[in-house]
Amino acid sequence: MQTALQFGPVLIHLDRLLVGVGQTIQLAVLSILFGTIIGTLGAIGRSFGPRWVSWPIAAYVELIRNTPLLIQLYFVFFTLPLIGLKFSSSTAAIFALSIHLGAYATEILRAGVQSVPVGQIEAAKSLGLSSYRIIRHVVLVPAVRAVYPALSAQFILQLMGTSIVGAIAAEELTAIANNLVMETFRSFEVYIVIAVIYFVLVQAASLIFAGIGRLLFRWKS
Amino acid sequence: MSLRDFGPNELMFLIMATRWTILLALIAFAGGGVIGLAVAALRVAPLPPLRWLAAGYIQFFMGTPILIQLFMAYYGSSLLGFRPDPWAAAAITFSLNGGAFFGEIFRGSIDAVPKGQWEASTALGFRFLPTLRLVILPQAVRLMLPPTVGFMVQIVKTTSVASLIGLTELARAATQVNTVTFQPVLVFGTVSLIYFMLCWPLSLYAGYLERKVGQGLQVKMKKPLLLAS
């Protein structure tokens, strides 16, 4: 039995791994973008909307946060074709990932919105600002700032969460790793390399989020 | 088109598979809790190399996807000469992974205990471990309880990933039933409901504990003011 680790057969496929990295980043970026949009609207609706808006949002948040992402992926992947929507695996994955993150982002941003003092909103009202400008400048900006660390931690979880979309045959880094295992039979080496790549991605992402945070929220509170 | 319909037998199959989800979650909780305690102790240990070791451990398990960790345990075992076994791989991975998250949770609670408690214990002649066990941890437990229960929800949901290395728990049972019935709405709807019934009570309990601890802290903060007056 051959027990020595051999990384050569894995590393000659570096080009394919890099394609996988690109696909993983694409999945993460797009789903973070859509998820944050869902979360922003959700948090506003949950905080300021009438009951018929805020209750369904609360139900959505609880349902998503108390079921596994994998089941959400399967649900989207197998159910959407039934109602006539034919998507590629990648699109279905982005769809499910966005809905998943949307629930977490709603909950995080809602906490941020609640941290904004009522007096601040009343002051904006008495200054005659429109509802849009109040929500945009007086509520959302300090809200996002207050919960930015929690939000970026969730984004990083999302980046790692993309690793399971191979289950619905979507292409990304882990799925490519699984293919390489079948071709090279160097299973352990492949996953070590993949683990290192994810680790670097996660560290890079947290640096980038910290940098964005410093750029966006430079003023003193 | 489908081989059979989603009926009582299929429902029973899913419910029986839930046992394995619960068992794996309990293993992860117990193993992760014990490892987490050790990791947290190392993380606040007086020797810097021990702290770095624990920090590296946490960094690895929190900085890579659990699916990759599962694959590494599954295929790594064959490298060590064992036959790959999904249950062994899942039990080990979920315990080690849970240990990292619990370690961070516990350390956060330990850090929240005032420094004076450490100094007072040292002054009374307590060594590191007795201080931690007899003085710090009893005070930290109240703070670590809400995030611990919250993380249990996370564990239950994450066990579904073990289906991808071939462990037949709820998520894998769901895909099997879906393959023969092809009624995804019914199958995955039912499975979502089962997961929801496992997780939601825990989520509610975690939220309740959080509010309770929050109130406790407020009371604590008021007390010195009363003493001063």
What labels would you give this structure?
heterodimer, A: 221 residues, mainly alpha, MetI-like fold, 9 helices, 0% strand, B: 229 residues, 8 helices, 83% helix, disordered C terminus
Q: Find the count of extended strands of chain B (DSSP E, 2+ residues).
A: 0
In CATH, the architecture of chain B is Orthogonal Bundle
Strand content of chain A: under 5%
Helix-strand makeup class of chain A? mainly alpha
Helix content of chain B: over 70%
Largest sheet of chain A: none
Quick gist of this model?
Chain A has 221 residues and is an all-alpha fold. Chain A has helices at 8-11, 14-48, 51-65, 69-79, 89-114, 118-126, 131-161, 173-184, 187-216.
Report on the structure:
The complex is a heterodimer of chains A (221) and B (229). Chain A has 221 residues and is mostly helical. Chain A has a single domain, classed as MetI-like (MetI-like fold, Orthogonal Bundle), CATH 1.10.3720.10. In chain A, 78% of the residues lie in helices and 0% in strands. Chain A contains 9 helices and no strands. Chain A has helices at residues 8-11, 14-48, 51-65, 69-79, 89-114, 118-126, 131-161, 173-184, 187-216. The mean pLDDT of chain A is 92. With 229 residues, chain B is mainly α. Chain B has a single domain (8-228), classed as Orthogonal Bundle (MetI-like fold). Chain B is 83% helix and 0% strand. Chain B is built from 8 helices and no strands. In chain B, helix 1 runs antiparallel to helix 6, helix 3 crosses helix 4 and helix 6 runs antiparallel to helix 8 (184-228). The N and C termini of chain B lie far apart (80 Å). In chain B, 41% of the residues are buried. Classes of the chains: A mainly alpha (221), B mainly alpha (229). Chain A: It is a multi-pass membrane protein. Chain A: Residues 21-209 form the ABC transmembrane type-1 domain.
